[in-house]
């Protein structure tokens, strides 16, 4: 059976000059793992017994980035499922999209991560080495832009 994990792609909107496009003011939160290859990823983790997928995404976000569900607004209509092998075993990761209510909220990392960055789409894609994660970030960005 596939390992199942869930997480949130978290973004914030910066206060920008009136002339700039709204989409230019969006930054995504990526966390750098403190283990393995120190890859960058949105907060995510394994589903615990008795937990539903969305509960997992919020719990993991709280554990890994110190963000409470009350500090985030879940974006309706976006959900992305990724499938890839980890150590030869299938893994499924489900992401939702969530906006920070206050863009200045402090991020508090757990021991699982050693750094975090707020990144514009182009830089976020550079940090997220995996093609499926890059595609997911671009797709989420398109989704947000289409709602403007």
Automatic annotation (TrEMBL):
Keywords: Hydrolase, Nucleotide-binding. Signal peptide: none annotated. Catalyzes the asymmetric hydrolysis of diadenosine 5',5'''-P1,P4-tetraphosphate (Ap4A) to yield AMP and ATP. Exhibits decapping activity towards FAD-capped RNAs and dpCoA-capped RNAs in vitro. It catalyses: a 5'-end CoA-ribonucleoside in mRNA + H2O = a 5'-end phospho-adenosine-phospho-ribonucleoside in mRNA + (R)-4'-phosphopantetheine + 2 H(+); P(1),P(4)-bis(5'-guanosyl) tetraphosphate + H2O = GMP + GTP + 2 H(+); a 5'-end FAD-phospho-ribonucleoside in mRNA + H2O = a 5'-end phospho-adenosine-phospho-ribonucleoside in mRNA + FMN + 2 H(+). It comes from Centropus unirufus. Its EC number is 3.6.1.17. One of its GO terms (molecular function) is nucleotide binding. This is Bis(5'-nucleosyl)-tetraphosphatase [asymmetrical]. Gene3D superfamilies: Nucleoside Triphosphate Pyrophosphohydrolase.
């Amino acid at each position: 059976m596939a390992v199942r994990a869930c997480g949130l792609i978290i973004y914030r909107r910066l206060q920008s000059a009136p002339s700039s496009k709204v989409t230019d003011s969006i930054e995504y939160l990526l966390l750098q793992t403190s283990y393995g290859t120190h890859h960058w990823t949105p907060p995510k983790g394994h589903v615990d017994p008795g937990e539903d997928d969305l509960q997992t995404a919020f719990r993991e976000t709280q554990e890994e980035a110190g963000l409470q569900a009350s500090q985030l607004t879940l974006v309706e209509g976006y959900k992305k499922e990724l499938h890839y092998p980890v150590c030869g075993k299938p893994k499924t990761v489900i992401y939702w999209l969530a906006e920070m209510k206050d863009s200045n909220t402090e991020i508090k990392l757990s021991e699982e991560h050693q750094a975090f960055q707020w990144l514009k789409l182009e830089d976020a894609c550079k940090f997220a080495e995996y093609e499926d994660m890059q595609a997911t970030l671009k797709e989420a960005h398109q989704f947000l832009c289409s709602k403007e």
